[in-house]
Amino acid sequence: MPVRFTRVFAAAASAAGALVYAGYRHDARAIRDRVDGGSTVADTAAGRIEYADIGEGEAMLVIHGAGGGYDQGLLIARDFAAGHRVVAPSRFGYLKTPAPEDSSPAAQADAHAALLDSLQVGQAIVVGVSAGAPSAIEMALRHPQRVKALILLVPRTYHPTQTVGADGSVPSQTVLRLIESSADFLFWLAMRVSRASLVRFFGVPPEVEARASTVEQARATEIMNSVLPLSWRVRGLQLDGLTRIGPWPLEKIAAPTLIISAEDDLYKTLPGARFTAEHIPGAELHVLARGGHLMVGQTASVRKLVRDFLERQRFA
């Protein structure tokens, strides 16, 4: 009887595993088709740059964070960019944008400007999200005439004593290893069997995400899924990991600036956000009490903060 039970259990486990993997293959195919077909590649003065260009109105350049691409930029812009023309590039090494020899934030800022040139966009509201913030700041410094306003969301910025990054917990470091090794299936599986670990890796206290509405949880899922396929984004992740942030001459930034961070961001973006706001003339800083790095549960608040800021600048 025990032998028979063991065989039955093994057969059932094998069948369940096959069903799970079939589900992954189905989802992976849909993700790849969506990502592959949703963008355009421009030949610019700075090389080939992948981007999406949607909507009408005042141009808004939305620069994605680590693990993203143009698709993540569109997801984030959906929260606050209604009534704007959204230009969402894939940064160096992400998706179809190659990594040039000089992949510094300064070179990336020049590439952003070159993309706007190719689209005949003179000026734009520049939004830098997380690891997209360094090139947004560089753009405000290097191409000030192109930046109507600067918005930095949970930004990776400079602080004299604090660095930004995933926490050192075992679950977060395990997820980081999955991402660095392009383990698409294991990452997809972790979303289903160890969601709290992934939520923590993405900089959100798991209890905050667990208490959020189903709509906000679905938004978090979309953003976490936006790192798939990992193999299409791993070079960009490597470049982000190699990027070292030093002090900028922030006092030279003339663009109206809005910075939003969260008290409980596990990536610890708040110290750098405060430092940046203190050194950019006239910058506005808004600190969310909770929501973590993905600002879970704060979509309406962020939308209002951005819209009110732009209305004050007469851009909305």
Written overview of the protein:
By secondary structure, the chain is of the alpha/beta class. The chain has two domains: 1-37; 38-164 and 236-312, 3-Layer(aba) Sandwich (Rossmann fold), CATH 3.40.50.1820. It has twelve helices and eight strands. An eight-stranded mixed sheet has the order 1-2-4-3-5-6-7-8, sandwiched between helices. Helix 2 links the parallel strand 3 (58-63) and strand 4 (84-89). Helix 1 packs across helix 6 (184-193) and helix 3 (105-118) packs across helix 4.
Number of strands: 8
Query: Which residue ranges are poorly predicted, with pLDDT under 50 across at least 5 consecutive positions?
Result: 3-16
The CATH topology of the largest domain corresponds to Rossmann fold
Total helices: the number is 12
Class of secondary structure makeup: alpha/beta
User: Using only CA atoms, what is the Rg?
Assistant: 20 Å
CATH class wording of the largest domain = Alpha Beta
Major pleated sheet: 8 strands, mixed
Q: Tell me, rounded to a whole number, the average pLDDT.
A: 90
Percent in strands = 15-25%
Shape: globular
What is the N-to-C order of secondary-structure elements (H for helix, E for strand)?
Answer: HEEEHEHEHEHHHHHHEHEH
SSE blueprint:
Blueprint (H helix, E strand, L loop, with lengths): L1 H36 L2 E5 L2 E8 L3 E6 L6 H8 L6 E6 L15 H14 L5 E6 L3 H10 L4 E7 L16 H11 L3 H10 L1 H7 L4 H6 L2 H12 L8 H9 L14 E6 L7 H10 L4 E5 L10 H14 L4
Parallel strand pairs: 3-4, 3-5, 5-6, 6-7, 7-8
Antiparallel strand pairs: 1-2, 2-4
Helix pairs in contact: 1-6, 3-4, 5-7, 6-7
